[in-house]
Amino acid sequence: IRDNVVGTATLRASGADLRTWLKFGLLCDASDGAAAVLGRRDGALPPSTAALVAVPAAAVALGAWLLRSER
């Protein structure tokens, strides 16, 4: 649900609001990635699940690129 809300808000926003939503999305994706890394390191996540860390990592890279291009 969170990703749907953030994605929809980002698509509908412009100007300063767009930057705010991009930053929020970046923060969410970075925290998802960190949780996957920590979960794998502690053994709480199997390798197949931890491999999904690539998805938030890609989202973080895209979000950072979008923030730079919105300057």
Short descriptors:
single chain, mainly alpha, 82% helix
Q: What is the strand content?
A: under 5%
What would the principal axes of the Cα set say about the shape? Answer: elongated
Count the E strands: 0
The largest β sheet comes out as:
none
Number of helices: 4
Helix proportion of residues, in percent?
over 70%
Oligomer: single chain
Pick out the low-confidence regions. none
What order do the helices and strands follow? Answer: HHHH
Average residue-wise pLDDT: 84
Distance between the termini: 29 Å
How would you classify the helix and strand content by structural class?
mainly alpha
Alpha carbon gyration radius: 14 Å
Describe the structure.
- The chain is built from four helices and no strands.
- It is mainly alpha-helical.
- It is elongated and about 40 Å long.
